[in-house]
């Protein structure tokens, strides 16, 4: 499969996965392996100072093979997101950030106004900014103009598993965008990931669809294959749609 | 002396540096990021950054998360 290139960095896998909600770190580690992902998202949170005995997430990620993508999940203003991104950069020694500025607790929809402000600040500070945004072609274009290295439109609300709710918007974003498009959030099962790729997304980011599957490791493998299948189909170019049947077998020579 | 550590009041024997504080808390400096009075402190400066009375210190690390 053709590689995915974001900000000059080449990825063989077009699937990016999360590190939250797994039954255990051990299962997460095996799911990561099965997914083939070369980049995983992590959240930045206060260290638990009262209990230092807990296992550390980083003991279960081979950072030689898998790049960390710190996110700014849980931030509700550009200021908080910028602050979190700076801390993530120091903790991970990488200047990549999955930028999230949330506008509403129930939907976790992005606050695009604040997102744009934070993107501009972080781009100026040398970050590779991957903003999580609504599936709105206009905001995607503005984020690209602000220097985002990719755009990450949602397919459906985070953790909803509803699949892609507005396929046509993803198609239009594909038309508009000159930076990679990573469909982020909303994937529930493998076919959703395939559809995202068939619509022209350059990659898919997911967490809950794998972590909350009955068998996260098997689902991770299925997502790997689904993303590959969707990419190949997109590149192959689907046939046109017809209202009526069109026989695949020749009509000439049929027995009369 | 009193400082605000991860949002809560905290008593430490002062004066001390960021490095001293991390040792006292049994925190591996390679796996965290530290913010001192709202400014991120580079690891190379942990030894030289002094914490004073009423300072705000945040110590963060990576935890599982997706979006």
Judged by helices, strands and strand pairing, the structural class of chain A is alpha/beta
H/I helix tally of chain B: 1
SS-derived structural category of chain B = mainly beta
CA radius of gyration of chain A is 20 Å
Helix share bin of chain A: 25-40%
Q: What is the count of β-strands of chain B? A: 7
Strand content of chain B: 35-45%
* CATH level-1 class of chain B: Alpha Beta
End-to-end separation of chain B in angstroms reads 38 Å
Task: Write a compact overview of the structure shown.
The complex is a heterodimer of chains A (256) and B (67). Chain A is 36% helix and 16% strand.
List the helices and strands and how they pair.
The complex is a heterodimer of chains A (256) and B (67).
Chain A (H helix, E strand, L loop, with lengths): L3 E3 L2 E3 L3 E3 L7 H11 L3 E8 L20 E4 L7 H15 L3 E4 L12 H13 L3 E6 L3 H9 L6 E2 L13 H10 L5 E3 L5 H9 L4 E4 L1 H4 L4 H21 L20
Parallel strand pairs in A: 3-10, 4-5, 6-7, 7-8, 9-10
Antiparallel strand pairs in A: 1-2
Helix pairs in contact in A: 1-8, 2-3, 4-5, 6-8
Chain B lengths: L1 E4 L2 E4 L4 E2 H7 L8 E4 L2 E3 L8 E2 L4 E9 L3
Task: Describe the fold and architecture.
The complex is a heterodimer of chains A (256) and B (67). With 256 residues, chain A is of the alpha/beta class. Chain A has a single domain (4-236), classed as TIM Barrel, CATH 3.20.20.70. Chain A contains 8 helices and 10 strands. Chain A has helices spanning 25-35, 78-92, 112-124, 137-145, 167-176, 190-198, 208-211, 216-236; strands at 4-6, 9-11, 15-17, 39-46, 67-70, 96-99, 128-133, 152-153, 182-184, 203-206. In chain A, the strands form 4 sheets. Chain A has a 3-stranded parallel beta sheet. In chain A, strands 6-7-8 form a 3-stranded parallel beta sheet. In chain A, a hairpin with a 2-residue loop joins strand 1 and strand 2. In chain A, helix 6 (190-198) runs parallel beside helix 8 (216-236). The termini of chain A are far apart. In chain B, the strands form 2 sheets. In chain B, strands 2-1-7-4-5 form a 5-stranded mixed beta sheet, with no helix packed on it. Chain B has a two-stranded antiparallel ribbon with strand order 3-6. The longest helix of chain B has 7 residues, at 18-24. Chain B has a single domain, classed as Ubiquitin-like (UB roll) (Roll), CATH 3.10.20. Chain B has 67 residues and is mainly beta. Chain A binds chain B through residues 17-22, 25, 28, 41-47, 49, 52, 56-58, 68, 70-71, 73, 83, 86-92, 98, 100, 108, 132, 158-159, 184-185, 205-208, 211, and chain B through 5-7, 25-27, 31-35, 38, 40-43, 58-67. Strand 4 (39-46) of chain A pairs antiparallel with strand 7 of chain B, so a sheet runs across the interface.
């Amino acid at each position: 499969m053709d590689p995915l290139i974001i900000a000059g960095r080449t990825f063989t896998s077009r699937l990016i996965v999360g590190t939250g909600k797994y039954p255990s770190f051990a299962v997460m580690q095996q799911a990561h392996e099965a997914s083939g992902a070369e980049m995983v998202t992590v959240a930045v949170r206060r260290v638990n100072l009262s209990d230092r005995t807990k296992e550390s997430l980083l003991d279960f990620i081979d950072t030689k093979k898998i790049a960390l993508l710190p996110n700014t999940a849980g931030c509700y203003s550009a200021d908080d997101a910028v602050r979190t991104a700076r801390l993530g950069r120091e903790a991970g020694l990488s200047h990549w950030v999955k930028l999230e500025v949330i506008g509403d607790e129930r939907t976790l929809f992005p606050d695009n106004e604040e997102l744009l402000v934070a993107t501009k600040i972080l781009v100026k500070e040398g970050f590779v900014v991957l903003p999580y945004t609504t599936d709105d072609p206009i905001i995607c274009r503005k984020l690209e103009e602000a220097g985002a290295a990719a755009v990450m439109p949602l397919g459906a609300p985070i953790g909803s598993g509803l699949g892609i709710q507005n396929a046509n918007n993803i198609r239009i974003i594909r038309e508009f965008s000159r930076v990679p498009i990573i469909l982020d959030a909303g994937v529930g099962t493998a076919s959703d990931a395939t559809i995202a790729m068939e619509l022209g997304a350059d990659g898919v980011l997911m967490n809950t669809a794998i972590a909350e599957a009955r068998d996260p490791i098997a689902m991770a493998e299925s997502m790997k294959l689904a993303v590959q299948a969707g990419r190949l189909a997109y590149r192959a170019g689907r046939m046109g749609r017809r209202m009526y049947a069109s026989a695949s077998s020749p009509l000439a020579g049929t027995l009369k | 002396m009193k400082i605000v550590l991860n949002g809560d009041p905290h008593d430490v024997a002062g004066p001390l540096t960021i490095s001293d504080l991390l040792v006292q808390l049994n925190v591996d400096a390679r796996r965290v990021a530290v913010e001192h009075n709202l400014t991120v402190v580079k690891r190379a400066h942990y030894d030289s950054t002094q914490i004073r009375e009423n300072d705000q210190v945040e110590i963060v690390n990576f935890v599982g998360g997706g979006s």
